Amino acid sequence: METLATAVIKSPVGPLFLAVSPKGLVALEFDARLAGQQTLRPNPRNLREEEHRFEFRDAREELIPYVRELDEYFAGRRKRFGFDLDLRGTDFQLACWRALVAIPYGETRSYADIARAVGRPQGFRAVGMANNRNPVAIVVPCHRVIASDGTLCGYGGGLDIKRKLLELEGAVSGRLVA
């Protein structure tokens, strides 16, 4: 069983759960989870059915560099994160998540744009599912992905938080509607 250093921190978009391995950030999750949302943490209602892959160690001191960069981001002083990521997923998910990280601060892309970027031009639904499985919210910026018609859609933290993050980055225009 792998041990991850963890902390729950306060942020302008609510509490965030962070988990870090020796290789980097494994998870950044909204503490208030939506029904059916993927999480690294065990669901107390389903403990018998879940595989126990991780042991969590409260280690706020170890996560200070991550927290500092997140605080700078929320203060509008950081446009790129400098810490390492330890992303875990299928080859397709990893390709999608790398494409998300490549979206510049303050810009948006459509699911179709990401599908083309990963060489699967008809795979916009698969891209949506990869976004849904993104374990590192905010840092792997799936909030920067919008529908082809410019509307906000699907976000693990909810559309209000997606809009707040896009507003923080200056990416919200009059055409972005929920």
Q: Would you give an account of this structure?
A:
The protein is α/β, with parallel strands linked by helices. The protein has 2 domains: 2-74, no CATH class; 91-168, Orthogonal Bundle (Arc Repressor Mutant, subunit A). It has 5 helices and 6 strands, in the order ββββααβααβα. The chain has helices spanning 64-74, 91-101, 111-117, 124-132, 159-168, and strands at 2-9, 16-21, 24-30, 54-58, 109-110, 145-146. The strands form 2 sheets. A 4-stranded mixed beta sheet has the order 3-2-1-4, with no helix packed on it. A two-stranded parallel ribbon has the order 5-6. A hairpin with a 2-residue loop joins strand 2 (16-21) and strand 3. Helix 3 packs across helix 4 (124-132). The longest helix is centred in the middle third of the chain and has 11 residues, at 64-74. The N and C termini lie far apart (41 Å).
